């Protein structure tokens, strides 16, 4: 039986869907919407961490660039939790950069 691979484009679109939902929740309850915004990145981070643990030695050049984007996302979320910065735009910008890396290398990254 073949393994079903989850498309990374779909993962990013799913993350964006949760971000949009958190924006709607933010209109109703600001504090819940803010936390939901930051938690919306958790499926993306967990999937990438599992991918890197399974494919330690088989990473392409684009995977290495995507590792940097994931580190920036994680660092920004940690700085928000610690109270040092409020970086919603940075997170959206880095997620967009990650999407552009996927679009530029579709065969190598869709694992």
3D architecture notes:
- By secondary structure, the protein is mainly α.
- 78% of the residues lie in helices and 0% in strands.
- The protein has one domain.
- It has six helices and no strands.
Query: Low-confidence segments, ≥5 residues, pLDDT <50?
Result: none
Helix % is over 70%
Main sheet specs: none
> What is the number of independent domains?
1
**What is the residue-averaged pLDDT?**
85
Number of strands: 0
Taking Cα atoms only, what radius of gyration do you get, to the nearest Å? 15 Å
Distance between the termini: 17 Å
State the helix count: 6
Tell me what portion of residues adopts beta-strand conformation.
under 5%
The helix/strand class is: mainly alpha
Order of helices and strands: HHHHHH
| Overall 3D form | globular
Using brief descriptors, characterize the structure shown.
6 helices; membrane; transmembrane; 111 residues; transmembrane helix; 78% helix; mainly alpha
């Amino acid at each position: 039986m073949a393994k079903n691979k989850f498309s990374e484009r779909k993962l990013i679109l799913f993350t964006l869907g949760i971000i949009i939902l958190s924006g709607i929740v933010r209109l109703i309850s600001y504090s819940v919407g803010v936390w939901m915004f930051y938690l919306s990145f958790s499926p993306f981070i967990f999937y990438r961490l599992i991918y890197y643990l399974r494919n330690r030695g088989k990473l392409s050049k684009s995977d290495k660039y995507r590792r940097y984007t994931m580190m920036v996302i994680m660092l920004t979320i940690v700085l928000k939790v610690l109270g040092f910065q409020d970086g919603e735009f940075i997170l959206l910008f880095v997620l967009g950069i990650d999407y552009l890396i996927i679009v530029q290398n579709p065969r190598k990254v869709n694992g």
